[in-house]
Amino acid sequence: MFDDIKESILNFITSRIFVLMLLFLAFFGIMISRVFYLQIIKGSDYAESFTMRIKKEVSIASTRGRIYDRNGEVLADNVLSYAVTIEDNGTYKSTREKNATLNRTILRVIDIVESHGDSVISDFGIILQNGNYVYTQEGNALLRFKADVYGYRTIDELQPEEYVATADEMMEYLCSSERYYISSDAYNESQLEQYNVPQDLTKEQMLKLVTVRYAMSGNSYKRYVATTIATDVSDETVAEILENQSGLQGVDIAQSSLRVYSDAEYFANIIGYIGKPDQEELDSLKEENENYEANDLVGKAGIEQYMETELQGTKGQRTIYVDNVGNVIEVESESQPESGNDVYLTIDKNLQMAVYDIIEQRLAGILVSKIRNIREYTATSSSSAADILIPIYDVYYALIENHIIDTGHFTADDATELERSVEERFQTQLASAKDRIMAELTSDDPTAYTDLTIDMKNYMSYIVSDILMKNDQVLMGDAVDTEDPTYIAWATDETISLKEYLEYAISMNWVDVSGLDVENSYMNSEEIYGVLMDYISTKLDSDVGFHTMLYKYVLLGDVVSGREICLLLYEQGVLEYDEETVARLRSGSYSAYDFMIDKISSLEITPAQLALEPCSAGCVIVDPNTGEVLANVSYPGYDNNRLTNTMDSAYYAQLNQDLSGPLYSRSTQERTAPGSTYKPVVAAAALGEGVTTPSEVIHATGVFTEAYGSPTCWIYNQYHGSHGNVNMVDAIRVSCNYYFYEMGFRLGGGRTTGYSSDRALAILAEYAGKFGLDHTSGMELPETDPKLSDTDGIRSSIGQGTNLFTVSQLARYAGAIANRGTVYELTLLDKLTDSEGNTIEDYSASVYNNIDISDSTWNTIQEGMHQVALNTSAFKDLDLTIAGKTGTAQQSRSHPNHALFVGYAPYEQPEIAVAIRIANGYTSANAAAMVSDIFSYYFDLTDKDELLSGTATAATSTVIND
Fold first, then answer.
1. DSSP string covering 254-306, please?
2. Are 824 and 626 in contact (CB under 8 A)?
3. Burial class (CB in 10 A: 0-12, 13-18, 19+), 116
4. Long-range contacts, stretch 169-173, CB < 8 angstroms, 24+ apart
5. Burial classification of residue 644, based on how many CB atoms lie within 10 Å of its CB (0-12 exposed, 13-18 middle, 19 or more buried)
6. Which residues does residue 258 pair with via DSSP β-bridges, in sequence order?
7. What's the CA gap between 610 and 688, in Å, rounded?
8. In the chain, what's the furthest Cα-to-Cα distance?
9. How far apart are CA 815 and CA 622, in angstroms?
10. What distance in Å separates the CA atoms of residue 375 and residue 178, rounded to the nearest whole number?
């Protein structure tokens, strides 16, 4: 019976399968007949497209929302333009054929685009610098880039050899058969001919190919999705691409929306820019909206990043069918994109720009007042930071050191006669310096570091820090024992030579040459040292940083003259050519010194370009009654138009190398000691804790003997004097250090219970926290955390110790003093509207803290600050009542002091509160002068055209001791 059932089941299954097979064959026959019919009746192309009916989901980009200032002035907008795109939509017999075809097509497109003066994308993280591949980023950003290139979601997944891969090694990998088959080594002889492989490519061509191919790889999971090759192209480029489109597989012209920023350098630190997300950014965005894709343009910095999900809008979606070459044969469905929302900021555009210009004019004035026609400045034992002068030779060198003059162009095919002459002389000096270095490193009797000449000391230090410990990491920083006596003898005592240090490092296994091109992996110490010498010698020939440093001594030795530096500015187009001025320079009737002073005074050469001290400043202006930020200025700025949409990697690398630090916000990221601007906090603490009264008079002798080391007041240091009898208002007015030392001493227990520094620090921290100085300001931008002093309660009471604050944090503090106790979470956001102007949300600053101190304490602090303003010469001619506090923060005797000012106006009914810091600004009188100009502008106290003259403003001769 069981066998009968089994047989019945088997017959049933067999019959079913047979029927299904018949149905399948019938269907197949119909399809073949259909294709045959189309082939005969409609033609072969139609039949081919019928057989390759591919469904494709296409995102339609939304228009990004605009960004406005508080008055409706546009800061970030969108413009329509044409872009050249490419899709990987071909069919290939092999991977090699595919890559060869793509590479050949891309090279042809690049030629077309560049022939019309347009540029292809250049947003890859490697550039060519003096003929060498170099990364555009450093640190964690570089590791993130490497992880993206090697295909990892996180940095931790990088393999050891990938972690340390040089730019050359990464390019070799990307050009190989492992990735894009750009190198001819990826093919055999027959394949080179068979696939018409582009050969003998220059480094520049290979980099451009890699850049486009890497961009395309972002869409590798979505075939038939276009990748942009060039943006904002001319009509001529559009015409030629369309004319040759039949021979450019997958290439097309698309209309695109470009993000543009008006008056970019003024607002870049606030607005930021957009670009493609890295993997970590994409993962984070997908948590908020799963529709984000690798090819999207998203906020990368500033408000663009902070308000990304509001500005981005909603994509449209189109479902289509395409044939085997990407032609659309049917649109199944389509939904339209929705524009992003518009963001209004609290910033006043005109005020922001005015403050930026005021800073630049004042910085130029300070530089002009400090530059002298001398070769070098040498400090004496009695010199202070305020006495530092700037030799004119430092100005000449600054133009090379900060890459304003492009020494790499000296060897270009179109180099001028002067450029070639300078290069020839430089090469002679390079050979001489290299001979001296190598003779020292191979000497049987090497010279101790301390006995070397200044230039040789700098060379030896550079070899260790930049050649041996960077990039290839031949001298492994992690392996070096900084407690080792021999290391200390080299790094601290300077009593041994570099040769002795390196020989010892080899013996201790601190040196690793395995990553270098060595034939034998088993070498003794002497052989390893020989490899090290070959490595150093080779690096000295090509290392850009070493060559830049060498130019300092080329200039000091008058091998290249200051006059030639001035002429190079014209020959390289840094300055607009002026035949008369050039003739005067060449004849000698116009000295290089006078020329430089004139060009800095006219701002044709800016403080940012020179990157001498001072070259930067930060200023934040707030409405103390609302917590709204009216201006957030960081000088110098940068052109974020060149970083947005498709990043200009060469420009980004230039910004990273720029010694003036334009990417570093001087208002929200730079921290320094607050100097005497901190004294109102100490006044609040002393009065609040009852250790003094507003009327108590203290006899300030100038030397505070109760503290270790007997710290002195500035008046004692300057004049051997003292302030005598002072109360708190007096002490704030004259910035008496002795008085505030006494307050710190009393807060720590003083003569009552015995002084405790920890107790003093705890109380100071409590009151600093009341003013919001224990936390970031609340602004919607990256901000460095503040640091409250954790050492020496007495010295911390005058703003020293380890207190560190940003300008934004000091601005919030100034606002809280102005409004008598309301500490806001500062905000840059005013409102959010849809694209039609309808308000979606009104923003306002929240309250961080309300300071509960007595009216008499507020009266005392505010009156003291009012007295400061009354006694500050920068404010004497202003028809305005002001309260403020100056501050000077010492860096070292070899650098000018930082100059600070915090304050508000009008004194009786404050409208604005200001904090400003000039890094290395010499004296707080310079900061006060800047604020005086800001008040003049804001309150219409002077002719604005005269104030914003576009030329250097004469520096004040006043020195405020605080």
1. EEEEEEEETTHHHHHHHH--EE---HHHHHHHHHH-TT--TT--EE-SHHHHH
2. yes
3. middle
4. 170/126, 170/133, 170/146, 171/126, 171/133, 171/206, 171/207, 171/210
5. buried
6. 79
7. 47
8. 124
9. 7
10. 55
3-state per-residue secondary structure call for 328-375: EEEEEEEECCECCCEEEECCCHHHHHHHHHHHHHHHHHHHHHHEECCC
Q: Are strands 132-135 and 54-60 parallel, antiparallel or unpaired?
A: unpaired
Tell me which DSSP letter residue 234 carries.
-
Taking the C-alpha atoms of residue 53 and residue 39, their distance in angstroms, rounded to an integer, is 16
Q: Are 633 and 270 in contact (CB under 8 A)?
A: no
Closest CA to 56 of 284, 352, 403, 322: 322
CA dihedral 600, 604, 608, 614 (to 10 degrees): 10
Give one DSSP letter per residue of 605-638, joined into a string: S-HHHH-PSS--EEEEEE-TTT-BEEEEEEES--
- Predicted confidence at residue 11, as pLDDT, reads 53
CA distance 612 to 394: 8
Structure tokens at 428: 């002679």
The tokens of 605 are what? Answer: 């050469």
- On the CB side of 956, how many CA atoms lie within 13 Å of its CA? 21
Q: Is there a contact between 902 and 928 (Cβ–Cβ < 8 Å)? A: no
Helix and strand numbers, DSSP H then E, in the chain: 37, 25
Q: Which residue has the tokens 């942009």?
A: 228
Find out whether 371 and 392 touch, Cβ atoms under 8 Å: yes
Q: What is the DSSP letter of 79?
A: E
CA nearest to 953, candidates 603, 584, 446? 603
Q: Decide if 321 contacts 328 (C-beta within 8 A).
A: yes
Would you place residue 49 in the very low, low, confident or very high pLDDT band (cuts 50, 70, 90)? Answer: very low
Return d(Cα 733, Cα 576) in angstroms, integer.
49
Tell me the per-residue pLDDT of 470-480, one tens digit each, with 9 for 90 and over: 877 899 999 99
* Whether 446 contacts 440, CB under 8 Å: yes
Q: Where are the beta strands (DSSP E) in 661-806?
A: 698-700, 724-726
Per-residue DSSP letters for 463-509?
Answer: IIIIIISSTT-SB-TTT--TTSHHHHHHHTS--S-HHHHHHHHHHTT
pLDDT of 814 > 60? The answer is yes
Q: What is the pLDDT of residues 89-124, one digit of tens each?
A: 777 889 999 999 999 999 999 999 999 999 999 999
pLDDT digits (tens, 9 = 90+) for 699-738: 999 999 999 999 999 999 989 999 999 999 999 999 999 9
Question: Which helix (DSSP H) or strand (DSSP E) does residue 742 occupy?
Answer: helix 737-747
pTM recorded for the entire structure: 0.90
* The token pair that represents 771 in the structure block: 């003013």
Q: Which two tokens stand for residue 772?
A: 């919001």
What 3-state class would DSSP assign to 778? coil
In 3D, which of 358, 443, 321 has the Cα closest to residue 55? 321
pLDDT tens digit sequence for 395-431: 999 999 999 999 999 999 999 999 999 999 999 999 9
- Which amino acid is residue 165, in one-letter code? A
